[in-house]
Automatic annotation (TrEMBL):
SUPFAM superfamilies tied to this protein: PLP-dependent transferases
Enzyme category, top tier: transferase
Lineage per the UniProt record: Bacteria, Bacillati, Actinomycetota, Actinomycetes, Kitasatosporales
Pathway per the UniProt entry: Amino-acid biosynthesis; L-lysine biosynthesis via DAP pathway; LL-2,6-diaminopimelate from (S)-tetrahydrodipicolinate (succinylase route): step 2/3
UniProtKB keywords: Amino-acid biosynthesis, Aminotransferase, Cytoplasm, Pyridoxal phosphate, Transferase
Reaction(s) catalysed (UniProt annotation): N-succinyl-(2S,6S)-2,6-diaminopimelate + 2-oxoglutarate = (S)-2-succinylamino-6-oxoheptanedioate + L-glutamate
Pfam families assigned to the protein according to its UniProt record, in alphabetical order: Aminotran_1_2
An MF annotation (GO) of this entry: succinyldiaminopimelate transaminase activity
Stated family: Belongs to the class-III pyridoxal-phosphate-dependent aminotransferase family.
Cofactor: pyridoxal 5'-phosphate
InterPro entries: Aminotransferase_I/II_large (IPR004839), Kynurenine-oxoglutarate_AT (IPR051326), PyrdxlP-dep_Trfase (IPR015424), PyrdxlP-dep_Trfase_major (IPR015421), PyrdxlP-dep_Trfase_small (IPR015422)
Enzyme Commission (EC) number: 2.6.1.17
Function: Involved in the lysine biosynthetic pathways. It catalyzes the transfer of an amino group from L-glutamate to N-succinyl-2-l-amino-6-oxoheptanedioate (N-succinyl-2-l-amino-6-ketopimelate) in a PLP-dependent reaction, yielding as products N-succinyl-l-2,6-diaminoheptanedioate (N-succinyl-diaminopimelate) and 2-oxoglutarate.
Name of the protein in its database record: Probable N-succinyldiaminopimelate aminotransferase DapC
Amino acid sequence: LNRRLAGMGTTIFAEMSALATTTGSINLGQGFPDTDGPREIAQAAADAVLAGRGNQYPPGPGIPELRTAIAEHQQRFYGLAYDPDTEVLVTAGATEAIAASLLALLEPGDEVIAFEPFYDSYAACIAMAGAVRVPLTLRAPSFRPDLDELRALITPRTRLLLLNTPHNPTGTVLTLDELTAVAELAVEHGLLVVTDEVYEHLVFAPSAHRPLASLPGMRERTVTISSAGKTFSFTGWKVGWVTATPELVAAVRTAKQYLTYVSAGPFQYAVAEALRLPDSYFAGFRTDLARKRDLLADGLRTAGFEVYEPQGTYFITTDIAPFGEKDAYAFCRALPERCGVVAIPNSVFYDDKEAGATQVRFTFCKQDHVLEEAVLRLGALR
Ligand code: PMP
Ligand code: GLN
């Protein structure tokens, strides 16, 4: 393993999911639902396979039906107009979109500012691009970005802001004021922004998701990333996308060509249908998740955790300090033995080890009876 990837041997998600399997624990670690998405969308994927649609290499940028559906989605929910032919790119999940964007847009030595705790692939992809990550630390209990600190982190070498809203793992959803401040800094300093909005539809009232690209001066400098995995509960399909200007999409497409060349064909037909589901689907999904959030949050609080309420995503960040615990990673490794539950230590997503030392993340995208059983087990910790 080269020096760039030193210490990144196995992702925390793979490690903790393996631990859940070997110990037979309830897995509230890795974020994937235990119930698949809409039946008619699964049927659309099966139909595409059997009808021979997409079984051979689809077009590199993605099938036209899906690119059109993505453009229509951006218009329908945010009033953003993108040309499906030149301003949309289909990727192998948001993960490839992140990798291709960073590999395409960064020069070695460029600085990238990202909120920490960061999603684990950010650090790896910045490293693979030979660039330097510069964390802006989100601190408990509010996990709001300090915008003066952000301003102070910008140097002549800063090339790009890597944003994530709604934010994994803290559940922070940036407000319009915060987005405006970020946008003004990006314009003032001529920065590109790559914004990971995979949880765009997993936001709880009164919070609302607003794409950064919709702010003044941002459309031309923003690469927006999303994915079908979270919104439609098909994380295994790995269909993601990028929307941006023709120049930026062309750059990202260049990198994508040599990573996966194209993305899996039949699922693209199914996701095109999913993006056109009625508003009631998106609203129902959110309502259901909000209830699960409350179920898990209440249970964790009763069990003795300090709970930080998320405004979005399907994760809850907690603090284990009330148990007298000092090390989230050690806690998570021991948790399956102690009570048969798996969680994720946020500490691994921070460069500032102090800031995240006692934070532990739980997911609530599970059936109610699973969450109830997990809460019962966690109740035995004290
Ligand atoms: N970004 C964030 C913030 C995520 O939480 C995830 C989901 N693991 C991804 C990107 C990756 O999405 P995908 O599964 O579509 O590659
Ligand atoms: N995004 C999911 C999470 O944060 C997992 C993705 C992965 O395993 N890479 O839990």
